[in-house]
Amino acid sequence: MKPLNVAILGVTGAVGQELLELLEERRFPIASLKALASAKSAGSKIKFRGQPITIEEAREDSFEGIDLVLSSAGGSISKKLVPHAVKAGALVVDNTSAFRMEPDVPLVVPEINPEDIRRHKGVIANPNCSTIIMLVPLFPLHKIARLKRVIVSTYQSASGAGAKAMLELENQAREVLEGKEPTKQVFPHQIAFNLFSHNSEMDEATGFCDEEKKMVQETRKIFHDPSIEVLPTTVRVPVYRAHSESIYAEFEKPLSVDEVRRALAGAEGVKLIDDRKNNYFPMPIEASGKDEILAGRIRVNDKRPQEVCLFVSGDQIRKGAALNAVQIAEIWARTASSVNV
Amino acid sequence: MKPLNVAILGVTGAVGQELLELLEERRFPIASLKALASAKSAGSKIKFRGQPITIEEAREDSFEGIDLVLSSAGGSISKKLVPHAVKAGALVVDNTSAFRMEPDVPLVVPEINPEDIRRHKGVIANPNCSTIIMLVPLFPLHKIARLKRVIVSTYQSASGAGAKAMLELENQAREVLEGKEPTKQVFPHQIAFNLFSHNSEMDEATGFCDEEKKMVQETRKIFHDPSIEVLPTTVRVPVYRAHSESIYAEFEKPLSVDEVRRALAGAEGVKLIDDRKNNYFPMPIEASGKDEILAGRIRVNDKRPQEVCLFVSGDQIRKGAALNAVQIAEIWARTASSVNV
Q1: How far is B200 from chain A (nearest CA, A)?
Q2: Residue A227: which H helix or E strand, with range?
Q3: To probe the interface with B, which of A170, A235, A274, A275 has the most B CB atoms within 10 Å?
Q4: Strand, coil or helix: what is A130?
Q5: pLDDT one-digit tens code per residue, B210-244
Q6: Considering B84, B120, B129, B142, which one is annotated as catalytic?
Q7: Is A311 at the interface with chain B, CB within 8 A?
Q8: What's the pTM?
Q9: Same structural domain, B288 and B250
Q10: B181 plus B244 within the same structural domain
């Protein structure tokens, strides 16, 4: 595989930092690495493979000679800069919601729809973290029983709102323990020792927030089935970096607990944790830093065995964002070098 | 209303302490108060209405002359002592799971089935906290549309496992912030900055835990409808004392968001918090210390308007336990004094 000229857009964020780590850890074939961020970070240095790299300001002309852009600087920056990267000839794996629902842009979870990568026209979108964490364990069941509908309640970590939000959880916890009033800067409500409805924009007409709409629309696009019904309730909880989800899934065909267990145990990207005897199931502290989505707490409705309950936890920064993007880039790079180059 | 000779069984626990506060706050008609606990607390003193009361060891002969026992010392102690209290002529409001499902024992949420109080034969059971917090806001909707099924995921506070569990959350949070390994004594898993499947006994055959079974069985008993289906997933979260629940409810008749809002706004024991514009909905820190169950985040499935989603938060120690018990006792005392005495 030919080494590539890679740019990370948004290198100073929580996902940007994880992208750096993953490229190093997974020995991604890199000829040169460009670290792009906002003007205020330009000039400071990051380390990659032991070498210092100076952060440059991300601008429209930053992408000359770049083969691959891993972009996670936020939706408005993606909207502005990604077209320039594409024009300069780069493939962009975009981690924001900017292009996800555009018909021309593949929305990919490598364990589910890697074949969609080929249809790209310069941009491949990385799904929302809650969608990825829900769909990776549902896909092996979808393959054998066909998913019809999901009712899901999330337990989402602070990391979904970035590195500053994780720090806010830490600082607020300290303040509460010291008997002080917690300082709110990132989240609209206290996050330490509390929980609240997800802080994304709320559709006043339907009562569903953006995070929930993403789970609905992205599921249909990734599974190529606009008839799948998703009814999500997204909630922030005082956890640092892994999202958990309580999933009720209705399939076309009945399933048994054993079938579900076998399907999850053999599924790519999933680690089965389903120990009833010891009441040991997926937990966010154990999902943190892991590549796999932990899945378990399997229960099948005894009256209607096409209904299955699961509890899952996945690292929001890793598989929910950076890892999924790097996996997409890896498949693209293999395909590109074998087919086109 | 004739002042009563009252005993609190389990006075040193989190619920026992709350019972004391509530009897004082609500000016419950008390002639004498007996404070009962285990032998190791006997001899120490508590304060009630400014007066010191010496804690006595709870024994089979502790109930002579007692009119009312508020019992929350745990299931095995209730099983042992409650029959003696009944034999001594007292009415027992029992806050444990010991007698809840016995056909002779009314299981009462005063906002829902106060009429069941009359059927008592010496014991009235207080439902499980998660059941109460779920049913108080569902009842006004049940009255107008008839509940058929609930899929519910809980966000349960440490207080459900008692005062020691709340302290464990606090201590672990401190340890994690100091970079130390958190000390586990009450909960099987780390609770600070983590969450896990509810730590009640797990039925290895079905995969449902005791907490979940209670929500299923108690709902049917309180609503007098064995056909209601409840599919719960119960989860502990790092919150001190209020439980939250993400509820999907299916009714026989369709409902609109406005109908649900009106029904909740006018319902006894419920405070409607449903501000889509400001993304402001029920939160456990705001439910703590309150008598009402906060209910909101109302959404109706646009394709099947008999399906309604809610998010609720309720003080687990207060309405989830002590307040509900005192409310039962108040109704019983009024009825007893007007009808029998």
Answers
A1: 8
A2: none
A3: A235
A4: helix
A5: 999 999 999 999 999 999 999 999 999 999 999 99
A6: B129
A7: yes
A8: 0.96
A9: yes
A10: yes
